[in-house]
UniProtKB/TrEMBL annotation:
InterPro entries reported in the protein's UniProt record: OxRdtase_Mopterin-bd_dom (IPR000572), OxRdtase_Mopterin-bd_sf (IPR036374), TAT_signal (IPR006311)
Transmembrane segments: 26-45
Record keywords, A-Z: Membrane, Transmembrane, Transmembrane helix
Record's protein name: Sulfite oxidase
Amino acid sequence: MSATRRSGLLDEQTQAAQRREDRRRFIKLAAAGTTIAALGGYYFLAPDEQTKAARRERLPDGRARLPPGQKVIEQLKPMGGSRGDIRKSAFRLRVHGAVDAPFEIDFTELLSLPQVELDLDVHCVTGWSRLGARWQGVRLAELAARAQVRPTARHVILEAAHGYTANVPLDDALADDSLVAHRYEGESLASQNGAPARALIPHLYFWKSAKWLEGVRFVERDEPGFWEVRGYHNRADPWLEQRYG
Ligand SMILES: Nc1nc2c(c(=O)[nH]1)N[C@H]1C(S)=C(S)[C@@H](COP(=O)(O)O)O[C@H]1N2
Ligand SMILES: [Mo]
C-alpha cells in the first residue's frame, strides 16, 4: 500500500485498483472488528490514532511512514507567506538556468503537459504531517527534460513570488514525486496553499515546497534559500530530522 502512495511509478489504473482493494480490505477488517492500521489516508481514525498507525506503517524501503517527531493532522495548516498573483491568467513559469532550452509557460501550457495525480504525504518542520492527500501536477523531471538541463547542473532553485526561494539537490527535484502542483484533493489549489501552482517536494520538509511558484532554475552551484539562510537545514530530510543546519 505504501508503494501506491509513495511511488510515482504506478499508473492511474494500478492506483485505482489499489484503492478498490484498500476499500475491500477495510470492509473486511471492520466487519471482523480488527484495529485498522495501514489503510489509505486513515480517514476513519482520529488524528492521534492516525499518528500511531503511521508510526507503525513501513514504507517499501523499511522507513516508518511517519518521520520522527511528526503528528498527523487532517488538513494542511495555512502557514502564511507573501502571496503572489493567484490568477491563473497571470501565471507564468520560467524554466531556466543551466539548461540548453530555457522556456516560459502560462497556465494553459502547464495543463497541456503530461499530468500526474499522486497520493502524497507532506511533513512540516513545525511537527505536523498531512498524509495521503491527492495532488495533481506536472513532474519537475518533465520540465527538466523539456529544458534540456545541462549535465553540469547539480541543484534546483524554486523561485516564488516576492523573492521566496527554496534550494533542492537536483536528484530530489527529479524524483518521481516532485511536482509543480496545481490541484489538491480534487480542487484547484487554494490561494493560501500557493495558487495557481506551487512546487511540491513531499519527501523533504514542506518549506522546500515553494508556493506561488514563478520559476524553476537549474544551477551548478548551490544557493541556500529563504529558510536555509535563516538557520534551517540545507537538505531537509524529515526521516533524518534535518530541521536546522
Ligand atoms: N512562497 C512561499 N512558499 C512557501 C512558504 C512561504 O513562506 N512562501 N512557506 C513554506 C513553509 S515553511 C511551509 S510549511 C509550506 C506550507 O504550505 P501550506 O501553507 O500550503 O500548508 O509552504 C512553504 N512554501
Ligand atoms: Mo514550514
